[in-house]
Specification:
Layout: H1 3-9, H2 14-19, H3 36-40, E1 47-49, E2 52-56, E3 62-67, E4 76-84, H4 90-105, E5 123-131, E6 134-142, E7 145-152, E8 176-187, E9 190-192, E10 201-210, E11 216-229, E12 232-237, E13 242-245, E14 253-257, E15 260-267, E16 279-288, E17 293-301
Antiparallel strand pairs: 1-2, 2-3, 3-4, 4-7, 5-6, 6-7, 8-9, 8-10, 10-15, 11-12, 11-13, 11-16, 14-15, 16-17
């Protein structure tokens, strides 16, 4: 690559930064092909395979867009740059991905050395919840290509990232959640920080906050599994849900203690020969006595 072309590609994309919305395209139904990113990098006509769209860039790399379904107007759930390992150029690759981040989420969340991703084995998470519309910035390897990507949080309109304070769905609600996390899973392997694949486990989700004396009337938990396909993470929504009810019934145990609620969830992810599950997303909905409804989202690594 000539020094002139390298210098041109490293110019700040002022037009891109101005035209992209503050929230970015990730999680929206907007056109990627008509974005300032595609104008800057001269995106070629897209190659489409189902919900996946690929665009050749003038750097020699490939932009990859995955929508939530086969509809061309479906929400964008993943945006990535695939870098050919025969033509690594760290400065250019870093700038290209920075510009993709601006297009996806409105700012650059990962500013580190992209070389750490070159030839990486497995999936490496670089940033967790970099924006309200994004779950993670990650990288992975597929064949002779390295992908750096942003994964959307399509539940962003109804749930919030760990560590934030979701707004109540009922006006005037006094309940406030501060943070939540899994504290461990108990199974035949003992207590682990991850979900053991193929074993039934009792995993504890701990929710901390100011409940203003309001008890939990009910809670329900839904799940989505993540697994690598073609160098990107696919998601599979699991049918059914686990529930808790103060009136009795349900298969979830609740242990309240001051400003902490501990939910014990019965989880069992079966191993499959044709699919390698790497993470479980848990979407919880809590309903309190004053009518306030809160949503939480947390993930568990699967090993």
């Amino acid at each position: 690559m000539s020094n002139f072309r390298r210098a041109f590609l490293l110019l700040p994309l002022f037009s891109l930064m101005c035209s992209a919305s503050a929230a970015g395209l990730l999680g929206t139904r907007a056109s990627f092909f008509n974005s300032a990113f595609c104008r800057q990098y001269a995106c070629g006509e897209p190659y489409r395979s189902g919900q996946n769209w690929m665009y050749r860039l003038n750097t020699g790399d490939t932009a990859f867009i995955r929508r939530e379904n086969n509809d061309a107007q479906g929400r964008i759930e993943l945006m990535a740059v695939f870098i050919n390992e025969d033509s690594f150029h760290a400065d250019v690759d870093r700038q290209t991905f920075a510009d993709l981040q601006r297009t996806a989420i409105g700012h650059v969340a990962f500013t580190g050395r992209i070389e750490l991703c070159y030839g990486a084995s497995g999936v490496r998470e670089l940033v967790s919840y970099p924006a309200p519309n994004a779950r993670s910035v990650l990288c992975m390897r597929e064949g002779r290509q390295t992908a750096v990507a942003l994964l959307a949080d399509l539940n962003a309109t109804t749930s919030t990232a760990p560590g934030s304070s979701p707004a109540p769905t009922v006006a005037g609600g006094r309940v406030k959640l501060n943070q939540w996390q899994f504290t461990g899973c108990r199974s035949e392997r003992g207590v682990t920080s991850y979900l053991p694949l193929g074993l039934g486990a009792a995993c504890t989700l701990q929710v901390q906050g100011n409940f203003s004396g309001q008890r939990v009337l009910s809670a329900s938990f839904e799940y989505e599994l993540e697994y690598p396909v073609g160098g990107v993470l696919a998601k599979l929504r699991v049918e059914g849900r686990d529930t808790y009810s103060a009136a009795g019934g349900g298969n979830v145990k609740l242990t309240p203690q001051g400003k902490t609620l501990s939910f014990t969830l019965p989880i069992n992810v079966r191993a499959r020969a044709d699919r390698r599950y790497v993470r479980l997303g848990v979407i919880g909905t809590l309903v309190f006595a004053d009518g306030t409804s809160k949503r939480v989202y947390e993930t568990l690594n699967i090993q």
